[in-house]
Amino acid sequence: MELPATRAGHVARAVSATAILLFLAMPIVIILVTSFGADGVGTFPPKEYSTRWYEQMAAPGGNWATSIALSSLVAALTTVFSLVLGVTAATALARGRLPLHAAVYGLVLAPLLIPQVVIALGLFLFFEPAGMLGSPLAIALGHTVLAAPIAILIMISTLRGIDERLEDAAASMGASRMTIARRITFPLATPGLIAAAVFSFITSFDEFFIAQFMSTPDTRTLPVLVFNALQFDVDPTVTAVSAVLIALAILALALVALVRKLGGHRHDQQGVLPVEPLT
């Protein structure tokens, strides 16, 4: 029998939850406030407020703008590679009958368990003889090693949530595999695809170890530049960059939540099966 909650219990839970949330949010709040400081030390709280560090970060042709552009390019390539691998591997694992299914599943998840510095060293030894260090393509392929397992997990969960009887019904009515995928599977899996793309992009954009091993003095991603800026000195521009990364992560999570909500609402209002003939 569950005991009734008292007023003191409600107050204690509310206070505890608020204290935990404030503790977790404190570093984020400090970074956001410090990023608007006018001094060149990065003190908290700032004595004067300014947007000078954001202006320096976005200055055309500067190191920060160049690194942001490179990280965006690498993250975009990583997202494409991860989605292709994610959809393919997830379909095989969720719908296929592979031999040694557990071993294959464990191999897919291995990059999430192995220390990233070990993976970075292996990629360095692989790409260095080919002269591909510093190439955005090589960095993107390296990031795909970490981002693809996340995309695969999301797509496996998404595909397992789709009723296979819908596809069987369409097949019994003469729909081809491509038509079933285009008209049923992919529309129902759209929230999962967007979530996989968002998390793949964020994983690549924030990754440091692989980018550090694969970068050159002329090609440095944003996390590598942040590390270099803090290695010997404190550059307040880092606080502005960190604030932008925080905002990007929040927007990404909000986008995933919105897409999932809209997807569920659309299915509730219109039904699961399309009304047009599957031809």
Structural write-up:
- The protein is 73% helix and 0% strand.
- The chain is mostly helical and 279 residues long.
- It has a domain at 63-234: MetI-like (MetI-like fold), CATH 1.10.3720.10.
- Helix 4 crosses helix 6.
- Pfam families: BPD_transp_1.
- InterPro entries: MetI-like, MetI-like_sf.
- Belongs to the binding-protein-dependent transport system permease family.
- Its main location: membrane.
- It comes from Streptomyces azureus.
Write the layout of secondary structure elements.
Elements: H1 7-34, H2 52-57, H3 63-95, H4 101-113, H5 116-127, H6 136-160, H7 164-172, H8 177-188, H9 190-206, H10 209-214, H11 222-231, H12 237-270
Helix pairs in contact: 1-12, 3-6, 3-9, 4-6, 5-6, 6-9, 7-8, 9-12
Q: In percent, how helical is the residue content?
A: over 70%
Task: Tell me the overall shape.
Answer: globular
Count of helical stretches = 12
Kindly provide the radius of gyration, computed on alpha-carbon positions and rounded to a whole number of angstroms: 23 Å
Kindly name the structural category. Answer: mainly alpha
Beta-strand percent range: under 5%
CATH topology of the domain at 63-234: MetI-like fold
Under CATH at level 1, the class of the domain at 63-234 stands as: Mainly Alpha
CATH superfamily of the domain at 63-234: MetI-like
Largest sheet: none
